[in-house]
Amino acid sequence: MSPRSASVNEELRRRSRERLLQATVELVAERGYEATTLGDIADRAGSARGLVSYYFPGKRQLLQSAVHRVMHLALQAGLEQEPRTEDGRELLARAIDAILGLTEVHPVLMRAHMAGILQAEGFVQCPEQQRLSWLLRDTMERYGSTDVDADYPMLRALLMGAVFAALLPGAPMEVPRLRAELFQRFGLEWELGDPPPQGKPLAVP
After folding, report:
1. Which of 21, 52, 96, 133 could form a disulfide with 66 if both were Cys (CB 3.0 to 4.6 A apart)?
2. What sign for the dihedral angle of Cα 183, 80, 125, 151?
3. Any idea what DSSP says for residue 106?
């Protein structure tokens, strides 16, 4: 049997990594972060336990990569939904809605992610984060930003703050209110993107 080509090996590594990331998403949603072990994740992914350490230095880094993958996929789906558009304002509205929507679809996962960022390990650079960053930067450019290097970090910070506010235990803010504030900040009409069924909050311009 001839050895596998480099491209085949790369595809196998990509699939193996993605199975671990998906298993992390599923288990953290089911059990919470603390109750999920690296062994559990490997077993759910059908991978050897040593493979987790091969790809990720620890559980916290694995979680961040898993969440960044979820965010990237949600953002990509939102931007590419029908009807397709090149309207930068519509694309930014869709991006905001995609990220805020994760607080309702994956609350446990996103809360664990935010808690990890605030701990000593901080923010982890990974391929999934880089893909997410590229999509958000591209969205800001299409929106019409003349200084993406300054405007992209601001967008990222505002989205992270909104996610944190939506998931704050004991005092969460309603997503429609957070959406309205973000839309006002960027001069977006409420009807753009995917407006929540509750409608526009009162007393918001």
Report:
1. 21
2. negative
3. S
